[in-house]
């Protein structure tokens, strides 16, 4: 079971939000490493800053339009978002932090339901009803545990 | 609206079937589309009035969880609403902008891609359980428009029919559309409860059902997966699975003291099950292994018990490993793990009695150790299901074309964290470590795993074989289990509180 999560969050343009976004990216791996290692279901996770578009072609842009989290984990999305919500380390904090600097207002993420609703609302690759992905490729369908078992 | 912070719901405000299992021998479950629209600007005043009049007509028949005393009500009903149905209600009861506060799993429903990741009805090739085939082939036409399920219970067939007629009349008068979920030729295609083997406790396949249920007692300060905090919305203090939404918004107020229902109609192929028990494999070596067992019961009964984890009378294999026993037939007090003096937990030895993939062990692994991704507790669900369709004798091995199965009401506070997580476990036994389940080729729940979905992208590597340990050095592997079940339909409903139903009814 692959659950690709492509989470795009447009962020505020003020200096504090922009700086927090940079810090979120700089500290991402360190913050989530322990929790994701323990879960043993995440294939990879990357958090990137999406640059603002250039105002004039050929001129460098400044600042960031948003944050893009791309990950792929085993098992079904919604039952196992609980794993990340309850995992130690910085996963919950990272998501709550991203929600705080989101350009579009996000209701406070205080509960697992809030967390699931937020993640699903910004996921650009939801599971297709047919079960057949049209916008997701994987070279293998092994789980992390199956790979680690070799 | 009560605003005090009680740590347990008042029984009089909770619909009855949530906190108590009815034992009424007659029931029927009616599916409706409400008048109105989920799209802006919403239902018209006329449609809202029709909705209110319908719920008002039913309200006095709704059974709460309050003690009914010595005499059971002769007939009664409970009401569930899908997210679609809630979206049609009066904005004065629940504001449109608050609807998104409901959990995404409830909002998107069981046919959604997210839910199907666990349920697996759409997985594998030509899966008969595919949501497109649900509701006797009506598929999305019902799934996307189903708003309301009315669960009607009665002590007599006559009284059941009287209340059904009353509800149908109220529905017709107020512009509701009834959906017929099964083949119309039988019982008008409605979901009537049936009695299997003249025993209301039995389901098709011959098992006694409903033995293992969460206690649903208030937590009293000690978090437990069994307590009603995990099932009734609004009491997160000591819940392990936190039902939502909770807050001050109108969705949270609407949902408080309610409970979710994973309503699932499952066809059971009794003839295939009987055939399997009589001839479980075409592999002569495996058949010889089975025939050489020194059993105190027939091989059929032994196999049926190994697949379920309980004998058909209810006795758990952990307490009655060799034959069913009357004194253990409703026993709940057992575990699978043994801790030795050095603190080492042994989950393996118990498999000599109860195989790891036996249904009751998968659906409730109790104290069996789980992998880190599963968290720290075993989620529970409340089951209020009943059989439908005529009894088939356990000697019959050729299908008679009649539809029969289970009308499953799986109650929980968190559809994703309880119902879907357990369903995912049944389709893919991967929730415990490699000492218990093969990592490369994990098995499925012997009874409820969707064999068509095995080794699909949804459940990579899963196999349909069934391992039965017989002693410390030997095990029997049934190479292939057939599919015994087909999903006929699924709906996610909220069973609102009595207070919320009262507001819907305008009383």
Entry summary:
The complex is a heterodimer of chains A (150) and B (507). Chain A is α+β, with helices and mostly antiparallel strands and 150 residues long. Chain A is 40% helix and 20% strand.
Beta fraction of chain A: 15-25%
Distance between the termini of chain A: 19 Å
Helix content of chain A: 40-55%
- Total strands of chain A: 3
Strand order of the largest sheet of chain A: 1-3-2
Biggest pleated sheet of chain A? 3 strands, antiparallel
Shape of chain A: globular
N-C termini distance of chain B: 14 Å
Order of helices and strands of chain A: EHHEEHHHH
CATH A-level architecture of chain A: 2-Layer Sandwich
Radius of gyration of chain A: 16 Å
Quaternary structure classification: heterodimer
Organism (chain B): Taibaiella soli
Region (Disordered) (chain B): 105-136
Cofactor (chain B): heme b
InterPro entries (chain B): Dimeric_a/b-barrel, Dyp_peroxidase
Question: What's the structural blueprint in terms of helices and strands?
Answer:
The complex is a heterodimer of chains A (150) and B (507).
Chain A: E1 2-10, H1 15-26, H2 28-39, E2 42-51, E3 64-74, H3 77-86, H4 91-100, H5 112-122, H6 144-148
Antiparallel strand pairs in A: 1-3, 2-3
Chain B: H1 16-19, E1 26-33, H2 45-59, E2 75-81, H3 83-87, H4 104-108, H5 113-119, H6 140-143, E3 148-154, H7 157-173, E4 177-179, E5 191-192, H8 250-255, E6 259-268, H9 270-278, H10 284-291, H11 299-308, E7 338-339, E8 345-346, H12 359-363, E9 382-383, E10 386-388, E11 405-412, H13 415-427, E12 466-471, E13 474-478, E14 485-495, H14 498-505
Antiparallel strand pairs in B: 1-3, 1-4, 1-5, 2-3, 6-11, 6-14, 7-8, 9-11, 10-11, 12-13
Helix pairs in contact in B: 2-7, 2-14, 5-13
